[in-house]
Amino acid sequence: MASSSSVLNTGPGPSLTDPVRYPVSASPAVRTKRAFVLVLLTLLVPGSAQLVAGDRKLGRTALRVTLCVWALLLLAVVLLLVNRSLVISIATNPVTSLLLVVVMSALALGWALLFLNTLRLIRPVLLAPRARPAVGIALVVALVLGSGSMGYAAYLLNVGRNAIGNIFSSGPAIEPVDGRYNFLMMGGDAGDDRTGRRPDSLSILSVDAQTGQTAIISVPRNFQNAQFSEDSPMRALYPDGYDCGDECLINAINTEVTNEHADLYPGVADPGAQATMEAVSGTLGMKIQAYVLVDMEGFSTLIDAMGGIRIKAGGWVPMSGYFDEATKTHGMPLGWIPAGDQTLNGAQALWYGRSREYVDDYSRIQRQQCVQQAMLKQLDPATLLSKFEDIAGAGTKVVESNISSAQLGSFLDLAIKARGKDVKRLTIGPPDFDASFSTNPDFDQIHERVDQLLASASAKGAQSAGIPDDGTAVPQAGAGHVQAAGAVPATLPAAGSAARQPSPSDFTPVTTTPDGEPITEEMLTQLKLEGNEEAIRQLVATNGQCAPL
């Protein structure tokens, strides 16, 4: 017996009285404490619970995987600090993102199995009856926080991957031109009864490839005699510009090419959008490399997915009713968007960007620019993460682009750099040109003004030209500058240096009549019922003024 006892008490390994590995001999209080510790170990260091209280081989394998994941996360953090665009490119690349989804799903499943194994190690039947529910709840919470979060992250990554595949192309990456990326943003309706979109808005986003400094150039939809770029197939049809009459507005190119000249663009997914991009390139004298087309009817869905946008509105904007062809006037507005600080939902933002009743087309352009800036400014990481699924789902219904998905990493990196920087702006019409300029444009003057704008939107150009960092492009003396109501005129001195123009946010919303009476929806409705259109026109004349909040 003595020799037998001696054998039992020799050799490595825990004693049978070890409460961690052999809880049978432990007190109820120790068993409860042990259960919570095992759950916490599985949550914080997956595999460690098995290593100390269960299958050591399983524990060692799981712990190796855990350490590898930690090392990769540490590497990702380091890369984010030194090469952020590379990390974003890996996450957005179709192949690597699919691999990440598979790996993260496998990790989530493996982690869930470790929690189930931990439950077996806890042996709930040994716990005091009152402790069992608390331990069970703790394990479920830990399972959701750990494995559940990992699985949900994999799901969101797959949602983003599918959205990227639906929105962006698989074509080659583009290179910056003169240090800048230039994108054409088109907004239009694509109803079932239409072949090709007829864009209601055309804006060029020019982004400095190093700093992210952005300039926005707006081209009115009624611009005439647009010049096609030298490499455009449409130049052979319109060598002197798109000059086939009063109906040949720049926004008609998309529909005409889609319906009549698609054969000039073999292999191009959207010939109309491509031809419009070439027309804007030739007109502005700058190379446009890619386009983003936004379906305005679905635009409100994206705004709602973001939780709305916040703006400071300079004047009241009508949500227009039916249009009476006989009197050439709109009926009673469906509603009004007041002046002042506002949070707009999707439907309101859509009307805010498209309404031109009582004012000219250029006030609408200013509001569209403001809505674009508000979206860029307010789509911060917190909003993106909290509403990612809704935003991604809305994006696939709203946005179409020929930007290569392989280049999203570098472009998202530029977007991050651009945050907080003032956007330079130019409109090929009021307030930067005469209202008649769109009908009889001077292309040399356009090219010169565009060059000035882009110089001000680059760090070197702004310093050498003496242009303030938060300035906007201003016109030359004698260019026929017409300011929107309430704006402050500005001219370019003869020496060629730029004058400081007030920031687009430097305005006071018009919320009262000249007599000091508050403007209300009831007042505007009553004026409409009386047929006093001119009074309404005067009260809402400043509604082109807008700034994102």
TrEMBL record:
Q: Enumerate the UniProt keywords alphabetically.
A: Membrane, Transmembrane, Transmembrane helix
Answer yes or no on keyword Transcription. Answer: no
Give a yes or no for keyword Transmembrane helix in this entry. yes
Region named Disordered: 493-517
Q: Which domain of life is it from?
A: Bacteria
Pfam families given in the database record? LytR_cpsA_psr
Q: Where are the transmembrane segments?
A: 35-53, 65-86, 98-122, 134-157
The Polar residues compositionally biased stretches are 500-514
Q: What are the residue boundaries of the Cell envelope-related transcriptional attenuator domain, all occurrences included?
A: 199-379
Question: Would you indicate the residue range of the signal peptide?
Answer: none
NCBIfam families per the record? lytR_cpsA_psr
The family annotation for this protein states:
Belongs to the LytR/CpsA/Psr (LCP) family.
> What is the protein name for this chain?
LCP family protein required for cell wall assembly
Organism for this UniProt entry? Pseudarthrobacter defluvii
Task: Give the taxonomic lineage as stored in the record.
Answer: Bacteria, Bacillati, Actinomycetota, Actinomycetes, Micrococcales
